[in-house]
UniProtKB/TrEMBL annotation, chain A:
It comes from Halomonas beimenensis. This is Cell division ATP-binding protein FtsE. Part of the ABC transporter FtsEX involved in cellular division. Important for assembly or stability of the septal ring. The keyword ATP-binding applies. It is a peripheral membrane protein.
UniProtKB/TrEMBL annotation, chain B:
It comes from the Bacteria. This is Methionine ABC transporter permease protein. It is a multi-pass membrane protein. One of its GO terms (biological process) is D-methionine transmembrane transport. GO terms for cellular component: plasma membrane. Keywords: Cell membrane, Membrane, Transmembrane, Transmembrane helix, Transport. Pfam families: BPD_transp_1 (PF00528).
Length: 376, 217
């Protein structure tokens, strides 16, 4: 792993020694067995916000953590820069174990970790310029050094003409751009994004995500983000973890997660995102057990080669059944294509059983949603 | 009205301004830090110190609950030790300041409480020390609120300083009581009240102006 000193990263010699025992696999963020228990006042029982979380984010990756509210996302991301100190476990960022640090050493380490927030958290008393300059002031840089760094950042973020404005005069998207410039000012190795687009409209969200992706590619910055929006994960993440009840229940490449989530919760997120539910009238008629005159209703998800295979007509031909397509959708997930379909397999019991078996031998996920009775 | 009378009024006005200015400055200089301390030592704050916070809170509350007129009399020995006399404007400054410090502190604490916790969190994520958070985040962000607090304090001091006249503190209150009330001179009474009203209006307008200028929300 290349350890940069000075140069690109503003390093006073004492800032950070080369990480001892840095592994050949450049893990930028490493959470090992991290738990966090809160003890609310007046209650003897603790609340476990995080349970034995392991998370590894390699250098240069964009890693998303998705979960419902209250799942522990917020606590998780705050444990990375120790805004929340884990109850147990270790947090290592760029080869440096943060959980062993406190006071000045921790503050020094935090200069290497940028963070942006859902509500931007810009100082209302400072102009755009002074907001971006703040982390540099905290590091003790001189005025002219600060100017040299802040000016190009404002240009990068297309904020140069807003330098003298106060945050209250900016739109949400502009505020988040200022926050991003501020987070980048100290030239961090890692950027933490706490629901960074959740307060923005879809159009602005897209623009901010594009900026984050740009930063990731141009600066090689490692990004850890938490979100409840699948759109965010789909658009910029390389890998994604699913969090529920303080535990990471699933982790996958984004393409895999969107084509084949392994957990119930993962499938729920995906279905909500794709809005692929059978028609309401059909749901009401679905029965769990197959009957004599009923047909299975299946949800098919296919990716890769399966997308371009004329599956439905083959199924009809080879198994001698009819396929009634109730809903279908094709989604592009980064470089992958995902096809989804809800269909009723119409035929006698023997043929539909064969059809299901046929589907399972192919490269696609089959989920039998239920059976719908047909008058013979 | 005689020239001597006018001179008395002018002198009393300057006395009042003197008492308000000196006690205002000292109570701001001590009350703002106390307010910051009350805030940052709270549970889950950047310098969490529940025991210290509790003690400071009780002291502040005592300071605020003793009626000014009683405080003034009760601390006479302390005042005499400090300024060498228990009468006159300098002697009045001591109880005025002591009454105003906890007043300022609680108002400043309230102003700091208005700041979004997210701003402190953001500063912490940038590696700010507690001192940097106080000087670069808390105080600048609360500037408008602190100006409001000081304006309220100054206005309160104007009226308290009138009370100080009762123990020979001098100033407009003293003049109003001695000449206006005791000697049945409604003109003097009216003049002192009008001057006090104008003074309060002036301080309030100045304060409002400073608040407006410092508020970019």
């Amino acid at each position: 792993m290349a350890t940069r000193q000075g140069g690109l990263f503003f390093g006073r010699p004492t800032d950070r020694p080369p990480p001892a025992g840095a592994t050949s696999v450049a893990q930028m963020i490493r959470l090992q067995n991290v738990s966090k228990t809160y003890y609310p006042r007046g209650k003897s029982a603790g609340v476990e916000a995080l349970k034995a979380v392991d998370l590894h984010v390699p250098k240069g990756q964009i890693h998303g953590v998705i979960g419902l509210s209250g799942a522990g996302k917020s606590t998780l991301i705050r444990c990375v820069n120790l805004l929340e100190r884990p109850t147990t476990g270790t947090v290592t960022v760029d080869g440096q174990e943060l959980t062993g640090l406190s006071g000045d050493a921790l503050n020094q380490a935090r200069h290497r970790i940028g963070m942006i927030f859902q509500h931007f958290n810009l100082l209302t008393s400072r102009t755009v310029y002074a907001n971006v300059a703040l982390p540099l002031e905290l590091m003790g840089l001189k005025t002219d050094e600060i100017r040299e760094r802040v000016t190009p950042l404002l240009e990068l973020d297309r904020l140069a003409d807003k330098a003298r404005h106060y945050p209250a005069q900016l739109s949400g998207g502009q505020k988040q751009r200022v926050a991003i410039a501020r987070a980048l000012a100290s030239r961090p190795r890692v950027l933490l994004c706490d629901e960074a687009t959740s307060a923005l409209d879809p159009h602005t969200t897209g623009a901010i995500l594009e900026l984050l992706q740009d930063i990731n590619q141009k600066l090689g910055l490692t990004i850890l983000l938490i979100t409840h929006e699948m759109e965010v994960v789909k658009t910029i993440c390389h890998r994604v973890s699913l969090i529920s009840g303080g535990e990471l229940v699933e982790e996958a490449e984004v393409g895999d997660f969107f084509t084949a989530p392994r957990t119930r919760l993962g499938r729920d997120f995906l279905n909500d995102f794709l809005e692929l539910e059978p028609p309401r009238a059909l749901i009401e008629r679905l029965e769990e057990a197959p009957g004599e005159h009923s047909h299975p209703v299946v949800r098919l998800a296919f990716s890769g080669d399966a997308v371009s295979t004329p599956l439905v007509s083959r199924l009809a031909r080879e198994c001698g059944i009819d396929v009634s397509i109730l809903q279908a959708k094709v989604e592009s997930i980064q470089d992958r294509t995902l096809g989804l379909m809800i269909a009723e397999l119409m035929g006698d019991a023997e043929d539909t059983r064969r059809a299901l078996a046929y589907l399972e031998t192919h490269d696609l996920q089959v989920e039998v949603l239920g059976h719908v009775r047909r008058d013979a | 009205m005689s020239g001597a009378m006018l001179e008395l009024i002018l002198e009393a006005t300057l006395d009042t301004l003197y008492m308000v200015a000196v006690s205002g400055l000292i109570s701001a200089a001590l009350g703002i830090p106390l307010g910051v301390l009350l805030y940052v030592t709270r549970p889950r704050q950047i310098l969490e110190q529940p025991a210290l916070n509790g003690v400071l809170g009780v002291i502040t509350n005592i300071g605020r609950s003793v009626p000014f007129i009683i405080l003034m009399v009760a601390i006479i020995p302390f005042t005499r030790a400090l300024v060498g006399s228990s009468i006159g404007t300098n002697a009045a400054v001591v109880p005025l300041t002591i009454a105003a410090i906890p007043f300022v502190a609680r108002l400043v604490e309230g102003a700091l409480n208005e700041i979004s916790p997210g701003l402190v969190e953001a500063a912490q994520s940038m590696g700010a020390t507690p001192w940097q958070i106080i000087t670069k985040v808390l105080l600048p962000e609360a500037r408008g609120g602190i100006f409001t607090a000081l304006t309220v304090t100054i206005v309160t001091l104007v009226s308290y300083s009138a009370m100080a006249g009762a123990v020979g503190g001098g100033g407009l209150g003293d003049l109003g009581i001695r000449y206006g009330y005791n000697r049945f001179n409604p003109t003097i009474m009216l003049i002192t009240v009008v001057i006090l009203v104008v003074m309060v209006q002036g301080f309030q307008s100045l304060g409002d102006y400073l608040v407006r200028k410092s508020d970019h929300k």
